[in-house]
Specification:
This protein is 82% helix and 0% strand. It has 169 residues and is mainly α. The longest helix is centred in the last third of the chain and has 28 residues.
Amino acid sequence: MPMLNTKDISRLGLMIAVLEVSKLALANLPNIEIVSFWIILFTLTFGLRTLYAIYGFVLIEGMLYGIHFWWAAYLYVWTLLALLTWLFRRQQSVLFWSILSAIFGLCFGALCAIPYFITGVLSGGLYTGFIAGFSWWVSGIPYDILHCVSNFCTILVLYKPIRKVMQRL
């Protein structure tokens, strides 16, 4: 990961605050969030330094809500979004970022089911792991669909104006 200077550390604090406040502001809405939007924009603007903000955000989430399977999933799920964004960073299309964010929202539950699968495997074998992970994922599909649609709309509406502001930074 890239080294941080004083300016980066200041930005890091602001990025973590934006992620946490954004999450808390929409916490009462089921699977409607703008953390995905911010991670995409932060990665496009600040590159892989965004990983520091992701891990800071996840650490605060763990302190606020406790450590459980979802917390472990947050460590790799948000990292995956940042890495995908970084790989496609030259892409300029709002539609592309809307679709990527929508696919991420749709896959979120499946990605978060991995710790349940692993725990099931460790406690009862491959079949138990499959049942644990699959049932957890399937029960959340309606929420993943909502997550997909809200991510798509969020990027579609907010990407251009916020991206212009962030490019000036």
